[in-house]
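Readers of this paper often ask what the protein records in our data store actually look like. The remainder of this section carries one protein's record, kept here as part of the documentation.

:::
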Amino acid sequence: MHNTDLLVWYYCLTTAKMFNELNEIKNRPRREMIETGVCISFPLKIGCKYEKGTKYPRDTSIVIRDSLVCKLSSTSEMLEIIHDFAANWNTEDVFILEMTVTGFDEGDVFNLYNNYDKTYFDVNNFLHLLIEQNSHLKWQPKILVFDVCPINMLILWSTTRGYANRVSLIAGSYFSDIFRSCLKTSHSCEGHLLYHLEEFRLNYHQLPFQISTINLLKHITFGREEKTELYHNLGDETKKLCIIINNENFPHNLKKKYMTSKTVENYEVALERHNFECRKFTNLKCSDMWETLSTLSEDESLKSYEALVVILISISQTIKNKDVIYGTDGEYITMNDLIVLFSDEYCESLKGKVKMLVIDGPRGEKIPANRSEEDQQGIKAISELFDTSVSHLKNMPNSFSLNVNTAFGNFVTGNCIPISLYDH
């Protein structure tokens, strides 16, 4: 894209703020000079098009000569529509393209996603294809306007990329127990939910877990009576919904998950204590997971809820730098798909409300580096011992108990376990 006449604008739909990322204007006239322009818009929902002869509201030096509004679609379909519409354009017209996208930070990178098919939208690649298919646009002045739908969401992972999940045979996943403890004490401005989670993450070094706050503008508290612009108050009087999907059985290439029923109980008890309505699903295939969640995101009854918590207890991995969550059939959905699915623009019923995703499960086989090599070898040996299809509860004598203490945790089984020693 050398020697082009191009301007790219990004507008945040919630704050009305605008910024330029790419500005390579070469031969545009001064602001007081009037130009003609043609505009094609791809909003998420069909709206009114610009009338001929009116000034373009985002640049009043441009008078609209022609305009077209089409429903947002896939990249290839949009390029085809542009190609058909641009065939008879005057090369002196300013080409204006408007599109609604979803944007959020992933690490240090701000990425855009197509709200129609929830795929990553590469601006540079789109421009390359646009010029390749419409050579007369190469030297034509171009303005690309992206109306960005931000996402207000809290994402919690029970472990970090590449690492195993820490699970107790008695207490379920350690993270679900931490989550339950944090909800008990997140009642004030000073002690909101994120504050307590960060305290655990910083001080409880044997359990690394990940917290992602995507444009989270307000802290989350439970039990505060007064309302404030800085906090989401999820007291007992507010209506709240929790969806728990518990996947335990997987194909042979993925390890079976154990003790997930206790993990489910931890989340259910913690949230029902705060009057969440909990709906549980067990062993869903990938397609069933997606159908359940996409149907939920489009459900207008969500308007009556102030908060949604989606908990996925399953196996996850990172594939080509994308986080994925598996269904029981071995197929997966990506975290990016879920994030876009519950964006403010796509899930209007929860716009501006609390949206929380919790993924509880292993994301690999690695053990945190604070353990010695000897500890890690011991953990691997114990993991192989217990990761079998043979039940340790078969053919046991009366009054039998087995307690194995490792750096990874305690494995306890048998039919005679001193409860007082393992009270949790």
Q: What stands out?
A: Residues 387-394, 419-424 have pLDDT under 50 and may be disordered. DSSP finds eight helices and 25 strands in the chain.
